[in-house]
Design a protein that fits this description.
The structure is a single chain. The protein is an all-alpha fold. The longest helix is centred in the last third of the chain and has 33 residues. The protein is globular, with a radius of gyration of 14 Å.
Length: 88
């Protein structure tokens, strides 16, 4: 389990960047963004052959990284909105 979380930690920033790029390129309803993040994260996890883990572990790590990337983005967005409200 620790290995899966370590892999997810490494993959999460990459997943977040790809999801942000896809959001800019494709018009998608905002409620489907977490699903898209999980799919992108799972794909990155499956493609991470350089990591010494089974395919199942890489897929789990990718899914977790997708959910983590959405959480990281939302946390940053909330902090930015609070900062903008404070400036006003």
């Amino acid at each position: 389990m620790v290995e899966i979380l370590a892999i997810a930690t490494i993959i999460a920033p990459v997943t977040s960047g790809l999801v942000q790029a896809l959001k800019g390129a494709v018009k998608l309803n905002k409620r489907y963004i977490p699903l898209m993040a999980v799919i992108v994260g799972t794909a990155i996890g499956a493609a991470a052959f350089f990591i010494e883990a089974s395919l199942g572990e890489r897929l789990w790590a990718g899914g977790i990284s997708g959910l983590a990337s959405v959480g990281l983005f939302e946390l940053g967005k909330i902090r930015r909105e609070e900062k903008e409200d404070h400036i006003k």
